[in-house]
Structures are given as C-alpha cells and as structure tokens.
C-alpha cells in the first residue's frame, strides 16, 4: 500500500496577506521579524497551530488557580451529565467564585 503524502496547507487568504502587509507598514521590518520565532513555535505543534492568539498561563487571571480548576471540573461534570454549559452560565459561576474569594461585588460587577 502506498504511503499517503501530507496535504499541503492552503495558501493564506487575501485578508491574512493584507494583515501582514498592514502590520509591516505600521511597525516596520524589525517588529515584524521579531515575532517570527514565536509564530514558528506556535505553528510547530498541532495543539497551537490553529490558535488565533496566545497569552502566558495565568496572564490576566484574577481567580486563584484552585478556583479556576474548580470551574474546569464543574464544566466537565456538567458536560458529562449532558448539560450544555453556556457562556452566561460560566460567567455567573466565575462571578460567584470571585465573590467567594473575597473580591468586592462592585469590582466583580464591573465585568458583567
């Protein structure tokens, strides 16, 4: 049986090409090339190749690691029971968890 060859990726869409040109025009060659290693690293694994953005683990997080893990377990348990979890449901659980952690309801309420 013949070994199948990998399918080459589709060429970039014109919007993607335009975005690259716009970025280069605004930021210059140095800034454009400074992202080359990061992009090459992201493309090298199937888990991150299709992502549109990236942030360090924990960046922008206000909840504790334990609370985030509790929310993940809650989502998994709900899905295991056949209950679809909506954005609004997760947001409500996260807001309640933030209040339980001692964040002011006023501060938490600003994120609604």
UniProtKB/TrEMBL annotation:
Keywords tagged on the record:
DNA-binding
Q: Which domain of life is it from?
A: Eukaryota
Molecular function terms from GO = DNA binding
**Keyword DNA-binding in record:** yes
In this record, what's one Pfam family? Answer: HTH_Tnp_Tc5
Domain named HTH CENPB-type is located at 66-98
Name the record gives this protein: HTH CENPB-type domain-containing protein
Q: What is the lineage of its organism?
A: Eukaryota, Sar, Stramenopiles, Oomycota, Saprolegniomycetes
